[in-house]
Each structure stands twice: as C-alpha cells, then as structure tokens.
C-alpha cells in the first residue's frame, strides 16, 4: 500500500469518527476547503455529500449499526484517495487537519464549580440532562 492510499484509509476512519463529535463542523470546513482548491467544480457536491454522510453516521451511531459506519468509512476513503490523486501536495495539509482538527465557532470551554451542603440534590451538566425519579 502506498503512502497516499494509507493516508486515505486513515482519513476515512478519522473523518467518520469525528462526524459524531463537536469537532465535526470545523473539520467539515477544512475538508471543503481542500476540495475547493483541488476540485472547485465539486465543492458544492462534496458539501452536500458530507452533510448526508454525517447524518447517516449520526443515525448509525445512535442505532449502534457498525456496518453502516464502515460503509461510510469506505466511501470517504475512496473520495479522499481521489482527492489525493488529483493533487498529492494536499497530503500534508490533510494530515494536519486530521491530527489537529481546527476549533470551530461551536467550540467552547466550560468550567463549573459547585458546592452543596445539607439535604437535597445537586445536578450539574455541561449539556442536556435528564433526571428520572
């Protein structure tokens, strides 16, 4: 396996894994930027396809459907391989993007301090919380 094919395989897996994280939107922006430079005529198509693939992975993740996730990984691997064939020079930028996805506008730092005394409950969450009694 050559270096670019190996990178495409790593990229397919990494991108798929990051689709269900807070890093996704920033990574998506970086990937679209690569396509816009290398294959500008396909930038709109890849944008729509990435959105559809992300929705598919999110549903598969919720349903614990590993076969769908693997299919998306393979799809992305092929797309990235094609991108790298068109311009092997973007390999280093892709490596950087995967190793350190840019922090998007949706990234945030949350710091919470809680103290509680006496009776009763204290609930702390950095996101949604459900309490059943």
- Shape assignment: elongated
User: What structural class do you assign from the helix and strand content?
Assistant: mainly alpha
Q: Biggest sheet: strands, sense, closure?
A: none
What is the overall number of helices? Answer: 5
Fraction of residues in β-strands: under 5%
- Range of helix content: 55-70%
Low-confidence stretches: 105-109
What is the CA–CA distance across the termini?
Answer: 55 Å
SSE series: HHHHH
Number of distinct beta strands: 0
Total separate domains: 1
Give the radius of gyration: 19 Å
Mean pLDDT: 87
Please give a structural write-up.
The chain is mostly helical and 133 residues long. The protein has one domain (3-99). The chain has helices spanning 3-18, 24-38, 43-62, 66-86, 91-99. Helix 3 (43-62) packs antiparallel against helix 4 (66-86). The protein is elongated.
Throw out a few tags for this protein.
133 residues, mainly alpha, 0% strand, elongated
Chart the SSEs and their pairings.
Blueprint: H1 3-18, H2 24-38, H3 43-62, H4 66-86, H5 91-99
Helix pairs in contact: 1-4, 1-5, 2-3, 2-5, 3-4
Give the gist of this structure.
With 133 residues, the protein is mainly α. The protein has helices at residues 3-18, 24-38, 43-62, 66-86, 91-99.
């Amino acid at each position: 396996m050559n270096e670019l094919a190996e990178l495409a395989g790593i990229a397919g897996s990494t991108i798929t894994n990051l689709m269900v994280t807070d890093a996704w939107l920033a990574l998506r922006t970086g990937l679209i930027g690569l396509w816009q430079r290398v294959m500008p005529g396909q930038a709109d198509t890849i944008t729509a396809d990435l959105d559809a693939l992300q929705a598919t992975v999110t549903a598969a993740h919720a349903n614990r459907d590993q076969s769908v996730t693997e299919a998306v990984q393979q799809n992305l691997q092929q797309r990235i391989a094609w991108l790298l064939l068109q311009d092997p020079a973007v390999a280093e930028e892709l490596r950087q993007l995967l190793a350190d996805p840019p922090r998007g506008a949706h990234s945030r730092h949350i710091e919470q301090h809680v103290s509680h005394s006496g009776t009763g409950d204290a609930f702390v969450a950095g996101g949604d919380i459900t309490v059943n009694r």
